[in-house]
Each structure stands twice: as C-alpha cells, then as structure tokens.
Amino acid sequence: MRALQYVEIGSPPRVVDVETPEPGPGEIRLKVTAAGVCHSDEFIMSLPEDQYIYGLPLTLGHEGAGTVDALGEGVTSVEGGESVAVYGPWGCGRCHACARGMENYCPYAADLGIAPPGLGAPGAIAEYMIVDDARHLVPLGDLDPVRNVSLTDAGLTPYHAIRSSMPKLVAGSTAVVIGTGGLGHVAIQMLRALTGAHVIALDVNDEKLSLAKDVGAHETVLSNAEAPDAIRRLTGGLGATAVFDFVGAPPTVAIAAASVATDGDVQIVGIGGGTATVGFGATPFDATFQAPYWGARYELIEVFEMARRDQVHVEIETYSLDEAPRAYERLHAGQVRGRAVILPNG
After folding, report:
1. CATH number of 156-290
2. Bridge-partner residues for 258, per DSSP?
3. pTM of whole model > 0.85?
4. Contact partners, residue 54, CB within 8 Å, separation at least 6
5. What phi, psi does 145 have (nearest 5°)?
6. Which CATH number fits domain 2-152+295-343: 3.20.20.140, 3.40.50.920, 3.90.180.10, 3.40.190.10?
7. In whole angstroms, what is the distance from residue 184 CA to residue 189 CA?
8. What φ, ψ does residue 128 adopt, rounded to 5°?
C-alpha cells in the first residue's frame, strides 16, 4: 500500500510504498476514506533530532475515518464495511481516566508505549491503517466521512476546551478565539451553538478573519500588540470571560493573558511554545489558566451529534494521496482555509 511518511528529520514528508498491515488479535484494519492534516504534524516535524520521540519512519495522520476492512481475532463489536471514525488519544483502557472515556488523560499510556495514530503509531494518511481496539472507533452512520473526519481533532479539541468553560459563558459573557484556522473556525460555531457568549475572533490578516465572520464571529480583531486594548474596548473595559488560544505561540499567549477578565478562563490549546506568567499582580483575580489536550470519547460522540444536527461543520480542501505533501506546504504557508483532508483511496 502507499502511505505519507515522515522519513528523515528536517525533511518534508513523502509518499512511499509500505507493506499492507494485517490486524492482530483485538485489532481492526480500516480502508481509509479520509484523513485530516493538522498543525500538530507540522510541530513534530519541526523538532530537532534530540527532541523527536515519535519514531521513524512515521506514517502521518491523527484524524482518520474509513470502512472496516478486516478484523483481528476476537473482534465482534464492529462489522465489515461499517463507516467509522478513529478516536485518536489512545490510553491503557483500564485506569480511572480511561474508564471515564478520557483516554486523552491516561497517566500510563506513555510508560506502556501506547501512542496515538500519526503521533507515534502508524497514522491515517495511508490506504489502510490499524486501530488497536474497537473502543477507539466511533460509528459515523449517515455522516459524510470526508466532511467530518476532522471533527476527531479539529472538533473534539475545541469542544473539550469550551465544555469546561461553559458555566461561565452565560448571556452577556464574551469569548475570544485566537486563531481562526482548523480548530478556531470550528470553535466559533460551537460557541455560537452552545453558549450565550459574544464571540470575538482574532487572526493575523483580513483574509483569515473573513472565515471567522462567515462561521459566526460577532466581531473580528487583528491579532497584534493592539489586540488586548481592542478587546477591552469591545467589552466595556472588563475583558473576556474566556479566551481560547488555538495558536499557543508567545505573542498569542501574551494577548490571552492581557485580555482575560477577573474570574475568567484562559485555555491555551495551541502548541506554539508560549507560556504565561501567572500569580498575584500578574493576572486578574481568580483568572484560571488551562492547557487542555484533545478530548474524551463521549465528547467525540457529542461532537458528531452536533454535526448531525447541522450545528457545526468543517471548511475543507481535499487532496489525493499524491498531493498530500503539497497540502502540508500550503498548511505551512498559512494558505489552507479551514482544514486540508487527504483521500488516500481516491
């Protein structure tokens, strides 16, 4: 089969021929219908050799959907031909976090050598992929896998962050979304559907902010040094009830910290390397700073229900497997509107 792999530190990914995997006991092989392209892939491919821990060669793709193609011994809970999405943050399946469906916070996964697909385990940008356990599959039913595959991360991750701040996002509140790309444009829709918040979106140019307006942002502000003052003006001097930073770079984290209101939330979702200084005098009273990671399996089911009810959608660009390297080039250049989706089997 063919797959998109990161083969050499510092080199771009390339399409290669590899052996088609066979499912072992308890495993499922999917014929991949669609796989999303994410900035997290860019992040791990930018790491120097002494910090890279994901193994080489690495088949990319942690957003995956496909049809069940082959079952390993003992698998009875899924059927051949079923359309499914992959729940990506795999855990041990036995601890307290995993028992609650929150494998994203499994404390034992790393020690046991368990890694998400595309982030250590072979990922979804391939003609076929192996899923380690049926519990990591979520039925898609009548949902279009191409249009909805990116909800497995670009939907689940913002939903998980928003869900924890929802008690504060009542009528009259303000939510700021920094970064209106793959995750951010979905977050705006979720905030509009689930909360009473007035939504302010930030990004670096008017073209990116146009997408934010298209999906429901009430206000848009350029993401620069003047942004905190603009947010304060738009909130009558109070600041934002919750700030969701989907970039996480030092400048955007600084904007988030300077924009949050007293008793507000800052959710640093992006992995751009930024950190916040917190403490008495450095941040507003009772402001909460969190660094959420991905989401729970039950939350992914809820996200798919939102899609089924037309409350959320992902703006996508589609690419063939041969075009996958170009999708990453466009992502790196900031040219992707929404999410790039690879169709490994055409």
Report:
1. 3.40.50.720
2. none
3. yes
4. 6, 44, 115, 119, 120
5. -65, -30
6. 3.90.180.10
7. 9
8. -140, 155
